[in-house]
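Re: export button greyed out
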Amino acid sequence: MWRYTLKRLVQGVITVWFIATATFFAMHNVPGDPLLNDKNVTEEIRANLEAKYGLDKPIMQQYRIYIWNMIRGDFGISFTQKNRSVNDIIYSHFPVSAILGILAVVFAGLGGVLWGALTALYRNKLPDVIIMFLVILGISVPNFVVAAISQLTLVNVNNLLGVSLLPIAGWGGIEHMLVPAMVLGLGTMAYLTRLMRSSMLEIVSSDFIRTAKAKGLPPTRIFTSHQLRNAILPVITVLGPSIAAITTGGFVVESVFAIPGLGRYFVQAVQQSDYTVIMGTTVFYGAFLVFMVIVVDLLYGWIDPRVRLE
Amino acid sequence: MAELQLTRADFEPLHTDQEIHSLSRPSLSYWQDAWIRLKANTRALFSLYLVIALLAFTLVGPLFWTVDPAAQDVDQISLPPFADRDARIVSPYEPWNGSSVLPVGEGLRLADTPTSEAVRLVWDPVAGATSYSVYRSRYPTGDDRALGLPLIDLYGSASTTFEDRLDLSPRTYYYSLLAYDGAGNELDFQTLTVEVNRVITAESAVERGLIAAPDDVQIGDVIFMPLHPLGTDYLGRDMLARLMHGARVSLFIGIAAPFLYVLFGVVYGSTAGFIGGQTDQLLMRFADFVVALPFLLFMILFKIAFGIGPGESGIFPMLVALVLLSWPATSRLVRGQILQIRQEGYINASRLLGAANGYLVLRHMIPNTMGVILVTLTFAVPSAIFTEAFLSFIGMGVAPPTPSWGSMCNEGIKTMLTTPHELIFPALFISITVLAFNLLGDGLRDALDARMRSVE
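Workaround output, generated via the alternate export path:
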């Protein structure tokens, strides 16, 4: 177990290094140069700026400085917001994205398991048909459209009731989080529902269910402690990659709902070609995702002892 | 013991009238069998037709609907679908200095027929008022007095007329008039609902190419503005033409990218699987690293890194980035399949008969993984379309003059409340396409691969 954990962690660190390297060289391949946006740059100012940002050094030396800074946890200073460090941006905006993401994952996971179990239970009956139809919709409609439509619905509901039931945009209390988290988790929830349904149906015809029936267990007991418990396992395996999907989906949802998260910041940085912010955020998100997948894999071994971690 | 009597006839060969082992059904190849199973699946078949219809929409459609997707119809901006497109011919605009004789009626009222050229308002002087403000709204003013656009503040009690010529389109407007006294207290509040009709002068009709010469029409005639079956966007561009040309981008990315990266994945995976050993380990470890890259972040990064030159649409960089990042999943899958097939008896038999390695891979291994590959390909299409839409939505997709469904959504979402059709149409097309490919993928999986068959 410990050896496995250590091995995965070492692999994770190498992966993060790979991400950082790919990011660095991709960004250096960008046509034009980062100082081009500044107007009225004389030769002296340009030379000064290049020296300040280390752009005058040979590329391998820049790379060494970059990696060394990253190891020390220093992502540099934003290009568009002078005097604001990338660390500061991540520090103040990542918690917002993380809370939203966690809520979305919880929503997607619980919803997926619940709806999936329901559809399997009422197989080919009305609830199954309705839920599976909604699931197909959830998979096919892009999340920015869902975000827009839900915002529109919220406006209309608020208008109809005459009171502001839930805020339409912004960030603050739990009331701001509910709808964006639901929108963010929707695609994943649809996917998990499908997965849960097929895994439930597969288990119904397995031997241990028949044994449980034969020894006279009540159906509810079979359902909860045999069927549900075993069917959840495949859902947990895909939860790791789902976190990745939800985090990146956050870009759009945060933009639409005007939530001051890191995703929205990233999109802004991309649009303003704020190089250090793009690099820092990419490496940070990459590292976060790599370690989330490792955590989920380890959790899986803990939940299902049959999986030997080697 | 009876003697066995054998005659010569006993040694005659038997005549068989019928074959004992006959095939009762025609022999079917794997693909024929799969096709029959696919045809039995109505959902899959329906989605197959839908895919064909979408391809026809984008490839054949522009031959019939020849409107330029970049052409702007400045008279019909943000036009909803199926809107009236008649315009009355009027004489050229003449300045109006207010009428000396007030038209009959009271309160805020019209001095003239309201047209898209000008709306002329008059009102009775309010006793004690020293200034008036005129507002215009697209929505009913209501109790909360959402007045809309402030048009003018008029000072002096004598001015009781106002001519609105600001960006009028043929629709209903709600005008409000506020009267103030010298201390700024509100004295009166009046509203007026105005139905504006579209008018055009003969000269500008000629200019727009609607009629050949000014003499062809007379004042008061009704002519038709250009047709836009699905309306226009915020720059007055035809939605139908843009959807057709946008489909080209979305479907090209959606089909070409998966095709390329699945191809690359097959080559990579089968090489790794077939050679095996150290090479396999090395190749797969590299694939693991590429898988670990956060997909959308690197899509954006690569898009920036490749850059878009002036006049380029940016489709090619997106294609390259998609291929670079997406191949490992297929290569893993194919490698697994090849490793499995390598152990099969028929491979050994073929090898024994002297088959070369290349022959084994091309003749036996790849055809036997074709089902899995095809299913992967079908499921890769919707995700590629989503990626394109997502990137275009955050402004990282195709460059502006080129339409794509994603960028159309991005533009449409800004005016979602006033002109929802600009968002609804592209969103609907994305959803239908993704839905069709998803259902087709489900059907193909059921038809092609018994082991992967979904539980229904």
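The domain at 45-68+235-452 of chain B is CATH 1.10.3720.10 (MetI-like fold). The button fix ships in the next patch.
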